[in-house]
Prior knowledge:
There is one protein chain. With 141 residues, this protein is an alpha+beta fold. It has helices at residues 2-18, 43-60, 81-104, 108-128; strands at 26-27, 33-40, 66-75, 132-140. Strands 1-2-4-3 form a four-stranded antiparallel β-sheet, covered by helices on one side. A hairpin with a 5-residue loop joins β1 (26-27) and β2 (33-40). The longest helix has 24 residues, at 81-104. The protein is elongated and about 65 Å long. The N and C termini lie far apart (52 Å).
Amino acid sequence: MNKIYLTLGFLLVVANLSSCAGYKDVRPGLNNLHKVSVKAESKQQGAQNALKQAKRYCKKKEKKGYAVVSEKQEYTGEMDETSYNTAKKVSKAAEIVGVGIFTTSDSSSGENTGKVVGMSGVATDTILGENYLVTMEFKCQ
């Protein structure tokens, strides 16, 4: 039963990280110049999310595509950027290792160790948050 809860928790984290439905961060502008600003765990994730939202927005407006006019990526966290990125990698690794220990263990102490390691990774990742802000201006074509 505990394995089910840990697996469900892990799946919820993955689903939460991958969810960016629609174009909730798009701000329509004048003269077909629109803006999208997103918070993300990494510059790459933020840029991908911004591009997806621009694409969905333009598709909804029945346009064939979009053109990026400008893009700005900035780190907005309180700790230095290198420490943040290192801590994010460690927390992700702890989540994976915890699930691995939990699901392959034959003893309750091993399962408990897996729970602690995995949940520590999830908690750390949540506390660290999304410290990159990606702002993109685009036009629908």
